[in-house]
Amino acid sequence: LIPAVLLIAAFFLFMRTRGDHLWNRLAVALNPSLDPNGTGYLGNMTRALLSGANLFGMGNVPESYRTLLMEPIDLFQTDLILTALTSLLGWMAFAVIMIALLFFILKGFSLCFKQKSSLGLFVSLSIMITLTMQVLGYVLFNLGFQFSAPISLPLISFGNTATVVNLGLIGFMLSVFRTGDIVKDEPMAYKNNKLLSRFLSWDNGKLTIDFKVHERY
Questions:
Q1: Among candidates 61, 54, 56, 92, which has minimal Cα distance to 76?
Q2: 37 plus 133 within the same structural domain
Q3: Are residues 36 and 131 in the same domain?
Q4: What pTM, to 2 d.p., does this model score?
Q5: Are residues 116 and 48 part of one domain?
Q6: Where are the alpha helices (DSSP H) in 35-117?
Q7: Contact at 8 Å (CB) between 58 and 87?
Q8: Are residue 122 and residue 97 in the same domain, yes or no?
Q9: Host H or E run for residue 203
Q10: Based on the structure, what is the number of domains in the chain?
């Protein structure tokens, strides 16, 4: 109870001191035109590029962003890959990438829930949730809802540290999937019955009670 009260008090204290700033950031993220030359600049640029995108091929890029889009700057190779691809190649490029990522996410969660051990389930599920949140945050950022800077788009966006970490997580998850049919949790009923049979044993007309069975199992 005490930790919960302290956490609530800290939250209200934080909101009292930083609340206005957070609400302003949220308002600009939802409507970048509120601060077009400041915090909302990237949001305005992203929405302008997407609004001129075609289904196939290069869209109508505003003159103010045409030179910026054509230059090999890091922004369009890391945080705004989807925006750049959609503007240059069309919405079909965006759709193809989203379908591939959606298949990866759905297949990953499907394999997670097929695990026969609690450890395998929780480890693989935590990794899939981490990757899914990265995808969600990245897609929202590239659609113009820039609440915070994205980490990366797993397996697609450029970024040395994020790429290495994501590949390590995926490799760890695949190793869990590979052994998922081998490692199983022992049913609790079977485990309890086994302990009971060890605790009470009958042999040659003698009933033996072993009080130290829990120390060995």
A1: 61
A2: yes
A3: yes
A4: 0.70
A5: yes
A6: 41-51, 63-70, 81-89, 91-112
A7: yes
A8: yes
A9: strand 200-203
A10: 3
